[in-house]
């Protein structure tokens, strides 16, 4: 394995992002210069697509990328043209699930994950746990249609009058109730901490240590962390 320090790793990651941002032709030119030095075969145009890599599979978030349409199905088509074999979406509600399922099969693009429970109402408030369980059940049925195995779960914004410890315990209790459902449907719930320093001020869960404590307390292989480098 390569031994990379943090600065070098981030630098290489940013370089990959820059290549993707300038488009296939520029990326191809740089790649061909690199392969000619290494003595490898020149890359083809298809190889140079941002989503096409040799050793890793990437799923692009079609909610965040600046496609020229708001239609999720058309965004999936554009992601496929860029070479991505997977996409992720935010809430499935409000979207044409059947159309997404058809497009996924037609394009050969996997819908890797979607948001099953968002910021509000908060999972960190026990009064919302009955609704949370019902929504996870509904999301599992949707996951079956879409062929999705990863469901994103958000802990919730701060609850007035509750300590962080109380809110986190409520998240643990809610997730434990959902574990049998996840087991039954063969899906994994992913808890995502948020960046409270920049754009999620007032959210109850930030950083890996607290997220790890919650997931370890739930103690199920069906509950893991969505570790977003930005957050």
List how many beta strands DSSP finds.
6
General shape: globular
Which sequence of strands runs across the widest sheet? 1-2-3-4-5-6
Give the proportion of residues in helices. Answer: 40-55%
Instruction: Quote the beta fraction.
Output: 5-15%
Distance linking N and C termini? 27 Å
Please write the string of helix (H) and strand (E) elements: HHEHEHEHEHEHE
Q: Count of helices?
A: 7
Q: What value does the average pLDDT take?
A: 84
User: Over the alpha carbons, how many angstroms does the gyration radius reach?
Assistant: 20 Å
The residue ranges in which pLDDT falls below 50 over 5 or more consecutive positions are 1-45
Main beta-sheet annotation: 6 strands, parallel
Determine the structural class based on helices, strands and strand pairing.
Answer: alpha/beta
């Amino acid at each position: 394995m390569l031994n990379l320090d943090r600065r070098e790793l981030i630098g290489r990651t940013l370089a990959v992002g820059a290549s993707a941002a300038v488009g296939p032709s520029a990326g191809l030119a740089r790649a061909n210069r690199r392969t000619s030095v290494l003595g490898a075969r020149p890359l083809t145009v298809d190889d140079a697509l941002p989503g096409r890599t040799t050793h890793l599979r990437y799923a692009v978030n079609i909610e965040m990328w600046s496609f020229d349409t708001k239609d999720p199905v058309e965004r999936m088509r554009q992601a496929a043209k860029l070479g991505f074999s997977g996409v992720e979406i935010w809430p499935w509600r409000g979207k044409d699930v059947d159309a997404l399922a058809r497009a996924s099969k037609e394009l050969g693009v996997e819908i890797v994950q979607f948001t099953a429970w968002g910021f509000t109402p908060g999972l960190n408030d026990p009064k919302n746990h009955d609704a949370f369980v019902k929504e996870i059940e509904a999301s599992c049925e949707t996951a079956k249609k879409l062929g999705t195995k990863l469901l994103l779960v958000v802990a919730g914004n701060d609850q007035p009058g509750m300590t962080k410890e109380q809110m986190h315990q409520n998240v643990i209790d809610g997730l434990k109730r959902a574990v049998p459902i996840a087991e039954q449907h063969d899906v994994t719930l992913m808890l995502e901490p948020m960046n409270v320093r920049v754009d999620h001020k007032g959210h109850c869960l930030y950083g890996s240590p607290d997220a790890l404590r919650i997931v370890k307390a739930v103690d199920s292989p069906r509950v893991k962390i969505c570790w977003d480098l930005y957050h």
